[in-house]
Design a protein that fits this description.
- The complex is a heterodimer of chains A (318) and B (511).
- Chain A folds into three domains: 51 residues, no CATH class; 152 residues, Cytochrome Bc1 Complex, Chain D, domain 2; 70 residues, Cytochrome Bc1 Complex, Chain D, domain 2 (Orthogonal Bundle).
- Chain A is built from eleven helices and five strands, in the order ββββαααααααααααβ.
- The longest helix of chain A has 25 residues.
- Chain B is an alpha+beta fold.
- Helix content of chain B is 42%, strand content 17%.
- Chain B is built from 18 helices and 15 strands.
- In chain B, strands 7, 8, 9, 11 and 13 form a five-stranded antiparallel β-sheet that branches. Chain B has a four-stranded antiparallel β-sheet with strand order 12-10-14-15, with no helix packed on it. A three-stranded antiparallel β-sheet of chain B has the order 2-3-4, with helices on one face.
- In chain B, helix 6 runs antiparallel to helix 8.
- Classes of the chains: A mainly alpha (318), B alpha+beta (511).
- The interface between A and B is large, with 60 and 66 residues.
Chain lengths: 318, 511
């Protein structure tokens, strides 16, 4: 039998190992030795790895490894590093008066970005992901150019800080429209609804309604229906209606007005986040220009053009 | 050489390995199975000490080595003036800024199809080369081949030629051998360091990074990359060498599948060489012996240590050094050259049957080569055309989806869009963005141009070699209807490049 040992496969000139399956024989082609060493090296590496890193699954968690590394810890480190990287930006925003933010387009851009993130966390529950509000609940749309309490960036910040009809702040924005239930009869309410609709060009209105309006409504909503930011009296002469423009809705609002409440955020958010939220809301396309006494805060045409040419923020390399 | 020749005496470790009690399914004496072989399961690498040779192919190999190494080491240092807004390095893969510069060509990430096209061309180029000249890539241009060749020259320089190196290998370790080995490995390491170091220079400004690297201020990834590439060059070029080709690289297998009887290979013409025998014997009995005098010069010069006379094999990288060696011997003994030569299997068959030897270049002229060349050239021409005609101005428009439209106080309707104005020129440009297809009175303003300056068209400055992101608001007056329209971008320079992007204007109650 040992004579088989050095039997050689003729076509390949390779030694046979002596195994045969139905006439098919196995050739002896040894693996390179370094291949084996590579295998041992991977075993050694795995032994080291098991000691250094989390490895063996136990009942509640895996073994920790002497390096103490964990994916959760790595995430925490990265988040901390990211927070640290933002600190200087936050400090600059905190030190900049909100009405002066627009003078620094780069800082403004960062404030808007930070505000967009905070908005998703704190505001979309009522105002919606696109900040478009919900008419059926009376959550206002923040994208349009109609503001009940004012759309300048400073006024928005004030609203965010102190809320509207919010118990948490003495400085909250608060007014109530009187309910006219039992004061006007049915015909008077119909006449008033007709006049209110006519303020924004819907229908021709009527003299009785106009008279009632002048006597009961014009003090807050103004004779033209333009409303009054200072009193939180909505404009009635535009295309935007907080609770909808149907006659039924307007009638209800006259007889038993609904009053939305917005919480102030001074007890939950830091002033920088509130400032960034104000910048974001103001940037949604309907923000009003700040009316200021100091000319510097009001950029005139050439300044805008200059900022346009030199501005490079908000650009990317893609 | 047969595999049984390669079996080494089992060493201490091999002994242990071979007695691991591995039993085979049929080793217990099946009806037909013989006893298991007692030989080693693992074999030690047999060192290759290839002999110095000179000849046309060796000189060509030198040339390829010099050219490829020069391209690799020198390219990052070439300068190329691109003006004040772009780097002045001729070839630069600027990952941080997402730009790829190659002389006058600048590729942006969205144009990655050029890189994909180049990779496809490289792949088809390998097919083309394989169909035309066999495994020429393996033999001459593959980095593993070039660096192995370089390291083998270092061996020769430090330790002498083949016989001296074999003697030194067998010699016991002593001061002289330690010094030689240390010196040789030191040179390996130096070459490897330069190799690994050159790689990173393609990814940043070479002179700056070079200085930073030595002052210790370069980024950790630079040092890690250099360390890994130095290590792999040192190990693969200095020690693994032909083992990479034989055991690791997939390419020899792929090429083996691509070769056919019309492919050029380096082959031993056995019908002419056999029966092989020494020169003396052959002179005594010329009718009995062929041209091969069994001098084993072809084996001695082979960088992968194979015997070409066994025929085509995966270990043959077709570097043709054996042709140089054999031709020299044939010349010395007064026999015609080409006992080992480039030839196709078909040519060999014809020649063995008595036809005259065919010049090797005739193997190039066959349909497959032309088809590959046609595809390769077609892709290249298409890419050149695309490169030459591409616009350096581009606009993308993404409408806000939530809210899709916005009713304003005066009853007008506003839509918001995020515009990306791309300026691929190496200078700042003013671009005009205009509305087309909206009703009279439609106006446009942006996050930086206030609504008080709203107009049907706006001019926006786009910095050099950047994309400017603009949030744009479009308003149509109350009572008008709008649906499909376009943003038209025009560069306000002599090029007047245009890009028109159709989009939708959303209205209350749907369009």
């Amino acid at each position: 039998m040992m004579a088989d040992k050095n039997r050689v496969d003729e076509p390949t000139g390779t030694e046979l190992v002596g195994h045969e399956w139905d006439g098919i024989e196995e050739l002896n082609t040894p693996l390179p030795r370094w291949w084996l060493w590579t295998f041992y090296a991977t075993i050694a590496w795995s032994a080291v790895y098991v000691v250094l890193y989390p490895a063996w699954p136990m009942v509640s968690q895996a073994t920790e490894g002497v390096l103490g590394w964990s994916s959760r810890g790595a995430l925490a480190d990265e988040m901390t590093a990211a927070d640290m990287a933002r600190v200087s930006t936050f400090e600059r925003i905190a030190a900049t008066e909100i009405t002066k933010l627009s003078a620094d387009p780069e800082l403004m851009g960062q404030a808007i970005a930070g505000g967009a993130a905070a908005f998703k966390q704190h505001c979309i529950q009522c105002h919606g992901a696109g900040a478009a509000g919900y008419e059926q609940y009376g959550y206002p749309n923040l994208n349009d150019d109609d503001w009940i309490w004012g759309g300048e960036i400073g006024e928005i910040e004030y609203t965010l800080t102190h809320g509207i009809r919010w118990d948490g702040s003495d400085e909250t924005r608060i007014t109530y429209m009187p309910a006219f239930e039992g004061i006007f009869d049915r015909a008077q309410v119909d006449a008033l609804v007709g006049h209110v609709l006519s303020l924004s060009g819907n229908g021709s209105g009527n003299a009785a309604g106009a008279e009632l309006y002048a006597a009961n409504c014009a003090a807050c909503h103004q004779p033209s229906g333009a409303g009054d930011h200072a009193q939180g009296a909505p404009a009635l002469n535009d295309a935007i209606w907080l609770y909808g423009k149907s006659e039924a809705s307007i009638r209800q609002q006259i007889l038993a007005p609904r009053h939305g409440v917005m919480p102030g955020w001074s007890d939950k958010l830091d002033p920088v986040t509130i400032r960034m939220l104000a910048a974001y809301v103001h940037s949604r396309g309907g923000g009003e220009e700040t009316i200021s006494d100091t000319p510097a805060a009001e950029p005139d045409e050439p300044d805008v053009a200059q900022a346009e040419v030199s501005g490079a923020e908000g650009n990317d390399r893609l | 050489m047969t595999a049984s020749d390669q079996l080494q005496q089992p060493g201490k470790w091999a002994d242990a390995l071979d007695k691991t009690g591995v039993t085979r399914a049929d080793s217990s004496g099946g009806p037909t199975g013989g006893p298991p072989v007692d030989g080693p399961l693992y074999e030690k690498r047999k060192s290759v000490h290839n002999k110095r040779i000179d000849g046309p192919f060796r000189r060509f190999k030198w040339l390829v080595m010099v050219v490829t190494l020069a391209i690799y080491y020198v390219t990052p240092w070439l300068r190329w003036d691109r003006g004040p807004y772009a780097p002045d390095q001729a070839v630069l893969i600027d990952l941080a800024n997402r730009r790829f510069y190659m002389f006058d060509i600048e590729i942006w990430p969205h144009e990655f199809y050029f890189v994909a096209g180049l990779l496809i061309m490289a792949g088809i180029g390998l097919f083309l080369v394989t169909s035309a000249v066999g495994r020429a890539w393996c033999g001459y241009a593959c980095p593993q081949t070039v660096w192995t060749d370089l390291f083998q020259h270092v061996d020769r320089f430090i330790d002498g030629d083949r016989n001296a190196r074999m003697r030194l290998d067998k010699a016991p370790w002593g001061p002289s051998k330690i010094a030689r080995r240390g010196g040789k490995w030191g040179i390996y390491l130096l070459i490897s360091l330069v190799t690994g170091g050159a790689w990173i220079l393609y990814f940043a400004d070479a002179p700056t990074l070079f200085a930073e690297f030595f002052f210790g201020t370069a980024s950790p990834v630079a040092y890690m990359t250099v360390a890994v590439l130095t290590g792999t060059t040192f190990w693969l070029g200095g020690f693994m060498r032909e083992q990479v080709c034989i055991y690791m690289c997939p390419w020899p297998r792929i090429q083996a599948a691509m070769l056919d009887e019309q492919s050029l290979i380096v082959t031993y013409k056995d019908w002419r060489g056999e029966q092989r025998g020494s020169l003396k014997k052959a002179q005594k009995e010329p009718e009995k012996f062929g041209d091969c005098i069994d001098c084993r010069e072809c084996v001695a010069v082979c960088p992968t240590g194979i015997d070409i006379r066994e025929g085509q094999q995966v270990g043959c990288i077709t570097c043709a050094l054996c042709i140089d060696a054999c031709d020299r011997v044939m010349k010395d003994i007064g026999r015609p050259r080409g006992l080992i030569d480039y030839a196709t299997l078909d040519q060999c068959e014809a020649e063995a049957a008595g036809a005259p030897a065919t010049p090797a270049w005739k193997a190039l002229l066959r349909p497959r080569t032309f088809i590959y060349f046609g595809i390769w050239g077609g892709i290249g021409a298409a890419m050149l055309f695309a490169l030459g005609t591409r616009s350096h101005t581009d606009l993308t428009v993404s409408p806000d989806r939530n809210p899709a439209f916005m009713l304003l106080k005066d009853g007008s309707v506003r839509n918001a869009y995020t515009l990306r104005l791309r300026n691929m020129e190496g200078r700042p440009r003013d671009m005009e963005i205009a509305l087309a297809g909206l009703p009279e009175g439609a106006v446009l303003w942006t996050d930086r141009i206030g609504s008080d300056a709203a107009a049907p068209a706006q001019t926006i400055a786009v910095p050099a070699d950047e994309t400017r992101v603009v949030r744009a608001y479009v308003t149509v007056p109350a009572g008008s209807a709008a649906d499909q329209f376009s943003f038209e971008l025009t560069s306000l320079d002599e090029q007047r490049e245009k890009d028109t992007v159709p989009t939708t204007f959303a209205m209350p109650g749907g369009n």
